[in-house]
Each structure stands twice: as structure tokens, then as C-alpha cells.
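Sequence, please.
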């Protein structure tokens, strides 16, 4: 009985560790996915989404798979021939962003939205489409608003507290000090919540820009 329990324990441990690996699945005419490849048969690839290891098992036909890059950087050999026949003439294949839910990856490496934004800004705006440039400008505006409200919160809190202290002349004025402090706390919380909203919108714009960026570099 103990032997069976040990086998089950180590099997579960191996299974949980295997799900932590991050593979990149490149599918034709679709977004690249961060997955954990489970099985590759003669006709299809079975996988689970990397950020949902307990979810359902997905399957895709081998004919739709461009390539699979495992978490150690190696490419699945069974798709090497297809990769060679579909590669650009000059042999250069630019890196692409991988957007999976609210996460972004690049060249099989998780990156922040800020890093992705900086990478897209390095590209010459004149070769971008107007839609991509507008998305980047919109994301920049939301980023500035986020920074502004993040800074404004503590400043408003300190300012209100300072005014409360300046108007505190004695015990009878204590409620005035309390009111100023409470007002400062309210302004701080409101500013931080607004900053979080702008951050969420900014990140969504960056993900939209990354998807459009992928499409445009494929035609370069």
C-alpha cells in the first residue's frame, strides 16, 4: 500500500512540474499560443493552455501547425520541414509577440507590457500603419494619465493633511483636522483607483497594438 502511495505521489509531482513548462504553439492564420504540449500524433497536436493547466485539452490538426518551440528553446523536429518551406526568402523571420489573455511573451520569454511597448516604439513610425501609430499614441496618453494620478494621490493627501495641521489651533478645532485628513485619504484612494483604471486601459491598448504589430511585420 505504501509503495502504491509513493508511486501516486511522485506521479502527481511529475505531472505538476511538467505543467510548469511553457511551450509556444504557432498556428497558421491564428494567434501564437503559450501552451503545454501533451502529445503529438500523426494527425494532431494535443495541448493545454499554459495559464490554465487544469483546463480542457485542446487539439489542432498538424496541417495547421507552423512550428512548436519548447520551453528550452528547441523546435519540434516533426515540423522542421514545413518551417523551411514557409520561411522568408532572405532567411530572416522577425520575432513576434504572443498574447495570451492578459499576458505577453516575446521569443518564448514572458515580458511586461512596458517592455512590449518600448519594443514597438523602436520601430520606425513611418513604416507603421496609421492604426498602429494611433494605438501607440493612445497607449502613451493612458500611460501619462496613469502616472499623473499615481503622483497626484499622495500629493493631495499630504496637501490636505498640511492644511488641516495649519488650521489646527486648539482642541476645539480638532474636527477640522480630522475632516482635512479624511478628505486627503479619500482623494488618495480615488486617485489610485483612477490610476489603476488607466493602467488597465493602457495595457489593453498595448495588447491590441502588439497583435497589429505582428500582422504588419509579417509583410515586411
Amino acid at each position: 500500500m505504501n509503495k502504491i502511495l509513493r508511486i501516486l505521489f511522485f506521479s502527481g509531482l511529475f505531472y505538476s512540474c511538467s505543467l510548469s513548462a511553457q511551450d509556444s504553439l504557432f498556428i497558421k492564420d491564428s494567434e501564437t499560443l503559450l501552451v503545454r504540449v501533451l502529445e503529438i500524433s500523426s494527425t494532431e497536436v494535443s495541448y493545454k493552455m499554459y495559464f490554465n493547466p487544469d483546463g480542457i485539452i485542446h487539439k489542432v490538426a498538424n496541417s495547421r501547425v507552423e512550428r512548436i518551440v519548447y520551453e528550452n528553446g528547441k523546435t519540434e523536429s516533426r515540423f522542421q520541414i514545413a518551417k523551411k518551406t514557409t520561411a522568408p526568402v532572405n532567411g530572416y523571420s522577425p520575432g513576434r509577440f504572443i498574447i495570451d489573455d492578459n499576458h505577453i511573451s516575446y521569443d518564448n520569454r514572458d515580458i511586461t507590457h512596458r517592455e512590449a511597448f518600448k519594443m514597438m516604439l523602436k520601430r520606425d513610425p513611418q513604416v507603421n500603419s496609421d492604426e498602429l501609430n494611433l494605438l501607440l499614441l493612445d497607449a502613451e496618453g493612458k500611460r501619462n494619465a496613469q502616472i499623473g494620478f499615481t503622483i497626484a494621490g499622495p500629493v493631495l493627501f499630504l496637501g490636505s493633511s498640511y492644511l488641516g495641521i495649519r488650521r489646527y489651533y486648539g482642541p476645539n478645532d480638532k474636527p477640522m483636522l480630522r475632516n482635512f485628513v479624511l478628505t486627503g485619504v479619500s482623494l488618495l484612494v480615488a486617485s489610485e483607483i483612477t490610476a489603476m483604471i488607466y493602467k488597465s486601459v493602457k495595457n489593453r491598448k498595448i495588447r491590441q497594438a502588439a497583435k497589429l504589430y505582428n500582422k504588419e511585420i509579417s509583410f515586411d
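The CA atoms of residues 16 and 53 lie 9 Å apart.
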